[in-house]
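Sample entry (538 residues):
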Amino acid sequence: MPNVTLGCTPQFRLFDSDTGVSVPVKGTKTKGLIALLAYAPNQTRSRGWLKKHLWSDRSEEQASGSLRQCISDIKKSLGDYKEFLKAEGANLSLDSTMFSIEPGTHNSGEASPTELLEDLDAIKDPEFKRWLNTLREGQVNTKEPDHTATPKIQEKAISDYFLVVFDKRFGGGLHENVLGSELLTSVSKFLLEMPEIQIVDAASLKENPLTGKQVRGCHITIQTQGNADSVFIVVGLESLADRRLLWTEKLLMPVREDFGLQSFELLTFTGSVVNQFNEYVKNSCDWVDAQSLTSQLFNKAVTGIFSLNKQEMKSADAVLSNIYEANPAGQILAWRAFLRSLAVFQHRDVNFLESDISSAQLADEALKEAPSDSVSLLVTSQFEYLHRGNSEASMHFAKQSVQKNPLNPLAWAILSNTQLVGGHNDDAVVSAKRALSLGAESPYRHYLEFFACMALSAVKEYKQACTHAEIAQTYSKSFTAPLRYLLPLYKATNQDEKFAASLKRLQTLEPDFVISRYSDADYPVNTLRKIELIDFVT
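Predicted structure, serialized as tokens:
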């Protein structure tokens, strides 16, 4: 394993510990980053701390982008030595088994202050200058790293997470076990895509019971009992804090061809389970520490995205940015990309977010960091369709999204739209209905109703399409997308009074709207322009 040593007098030097050969490092701030880590306690710093000491004069978005680029530059330039830099969640560190500081540079008394890291004076950031001056004055802890000390980054204890304890009580028959296992697996996939969730099997707690501090979370019981003709399912949610019953629901599932998650009844039932869980997390007061608040803040941010209100969307974006800063995860970037896509769809504008990072950047990084996450995949599917016009790639990513998390209603909605664009209209209707079954109680039902409207419009079921668009409007009166469809739908169904009223409402929300906007390439009705319904208004 190659080892590297940092020399600091008079200038920054990185070299192979065994051969003395110089290890090239390009860029002054990349050198500054290594120096900040080298002299840090346990040679570890948070990303936030590093950004404040190298890019304190930049916006949060710019600083985050610069740090990611800096890490990438280091990895590229160091070649075989790159593994000594560790990116572990919210922290960066130097691997003490591969890295050391040259003897004689740990005690500032052995070198003139002006001779320590002279070349890093080129870094103009005021916070870095302050740190460097303090280092030179001998006020920073520059003790040789103790390689026998405890690991730099402790693994999180189980109490640091929001716990989900699954208690499965399946009947002995084949159908009871198949249905119970399918339900358990699907719900687990859904929950694992939420930040800071830890799933525990109830059986494992018999040997290691939860202590008083390890009670933040939820107990989910899944019971199945049945015979050759039907299976009776009962799901219950309890608070781990006080064993308070939060919610319970039951379903009698006939054994037939669409048995399991192919059934819309079971989809709706399962959607209720995950929605009740989300509501509990979002509104829970069972914990107060910042670590466990992550899931709560995440759920509130998602609700804010679908409020469609500019201020709430802006706040949601800021919350997601902070969550990512504390616990980097590709899914959080995916949600920020999705937010921007929805902002364009609703407001035809993203400038109100006061962020210079684009949806394309976020979607690309989300897929790199979380290639198996359903939200990352559905956002990539959207991007391929809307910005690259690549329907095949869009379909590929949409299918991957529903496979990774079959309980994600948004994944089914995006798949429906992709199928519709590809001419698979009947499949699009089925997928849209699955999305709606799963998300009937979600905070974004209005969004899912709109996808059902689009799919039914494509198969010329105009009256049903009207109903879904009207329901979407009932849940969110400011949602402009259903109105854009209702105008041609009312024309197609000869509802002139409703057409006039909807036109007036759309012009209130979009003062510059005229019917000819449907033909403009920049007006967000891409899918509508691909189906015959558009003929009623153009």
